[in-house]
Amino acid sequence: MTVFDSTALLLTGMLVLLSLLLWLYPRRSSHLPPAPGFALPLLGHVHLLRKDSHATFRKWRRQYGDIFSLYMGRQLTVVLNSHKVIKEALVKRADVFFRQTCFFPLNDLVSDEKGIVLASGAEWKPVRKACLEILRDLGMGKNLLAQKIQEEVTEYIRTIASKDGQPFDMTRLTLISVSNNICSMLYGKRFDYDDQAFEDCMKAMDASIAGQASLVAGLFPAVRHIPGDPFKTHDIIRGLRRLLNTFIQPIVARHIQLLDVGPNPPDDFITAYLRRVRQDEADQKVSYITEKGLPMVIFHLFAAGSETTAITLRWAVAYFLHHPDVQEKCHQEIRKVVGVDRRPTMQDRPEMMYLEATTTEVLRIASVAPLSVLHTTSCDVSFAGYTIPKGTTVIPNLDSVLHDSEHFRFLPPEDGQLPSLEGILGLAFTPMPFTFRAVPRL
Q1: Measured distance CA(53)–CA(216) in Å, rounded
Q2: Residue 68's beta-bridge partner residues?
Q3: Spatial contact of 54 and 396, defined as CB atoms under 8 Å apart
Q4: What DSSP letter does each residue of 198-239 carry, written as one string?
Q5: TM segments (predicted)?
Q6: In this structure, what are the phi and psi dihedrals at residue 143, rounded to the nearest 5 degrees?
Q7: Hey, how many other C-beta atoms are within 10 angstroms of the C-beta on 417?
């Protein structure tokens, strides 16, 4: 081969490579929302994201405003910030920002069964409605559920007292205790704190949910092929499969085998759900309430009710430790309203406004679920002065709402009775009445 031939071959290879890179490079329209930095071929803006993506989004919001866009790989993604923008999209334009994105780690598991979170269109409404009706019948928001919670809290406190004042990590204990409340409603039973199989399932769920918080793993499926699996996507999938196959599905199978369709009220969610399935079958009714879809429904309810509640409780303990004055005021209010000779009930809640405000403030500051469930545009849409193409992934950034001074006015502590866990400034909450399509929280 001559020097000329080698040069021609090299130039041809470089030309092919350049053409490939140009083809892979994300093409931006001038009508899209602003984007941060430089998008790489194949990767998009992934290289600019850190593990705590919501912190990165805070920075970008300050730079680019309430709407900005980025590419996760080759997938165009638009992030919505502020109460006004999110409400406009998810409530007033719900017909466009409606179909929810199926999150990547679950794709290998859900098949045609979407549960609650991943359902869309005509499917999600009857499933969500049925779940809410069953949960209310079982006592959600009533004293019946409060009684079960009190029984579990008694065991929780007894376990803490057994430590004799010695320091210990309350993460595992809190997650298992909260999960037991969910189990008693969903399955009709609780598990011992030293049940190893139950603890293993809780660890699998914890790891899976923590992994799903990674936008890189969720929106960029190709990361599963990176040597060494740096984003732990395979661990996420294995954990979810273990949770479904070794914990949830066997419990559902036992309920199916022992199902009682008699007149007695159901003792748990699974029994009530299966009765609805049997009734729809007897009525020859076309229904999205199916036996096959029950395990994924259970998983979504379980994940939404246990992990987030446990994290919130740990944040509450941390804030109380750093703000003993707030802790003391809550304590005094409880003693005044409830006393020491009985347990609290739901009827006591309206009388403990300081405790209510403290709980609300913990939920706000902790921002346990900073990003809402992902959505996808169903068609090209003109929104807030931009053009967003069909198939764009949309991320509602709830963290931007919870820390938005436009909807939270700040007062010196001496000017108001509401607690402040942020130190010098007090806080008064301005209600924000809009609804996300969310899993019902237990």
Answers
A1: 9
A2: 79
A3: no
A4: HHHHHHHHHHHHHHHT-HHHHH-GGGGGSTT-TT-HHHHHHH
A5: 6-25
A6: -65, -25
A7: 12
Between CA 355 and CA 352 the distance in angstroms is 6
Closest CA to 370 of 212, 165, 157, 195: 212
Q: How many residues does the chain have?
A: 442
pLDDT in tens, the chain (442 residues): 565 556 656 656 665 555 555 444 555 566 899 999 888 877 788 778 776 777 889 899 999 999 999 988 778 999 999 888 998 998 889 889 876 665 555 555 555 667 777 666 677 788 888 888 998 888 766 666 778 888 899 999 999 999 998 999 998 899 999 999 999 889 888 899 888 888 888 877 776 665 544 556 665 666 666 677 776 777 777 777 788 888 889 999 999 998 877 778 888 899 999 999 998 888 888 788 889 889 989 988 887 788 888 989 999 999 899 888 889 989 999 999 999 898 888 889 889 988 888 888 888 888 888 888 888 999 999 999 999 999 999 999 988 888 887 766 544 445 445 544 443 233 344 333 333 333 333 2
Q: Cα separation of 404 and 57, whole Å?
A: 13
**What CA–CA distance (Å, rounded) separates 435 from 247?**
32
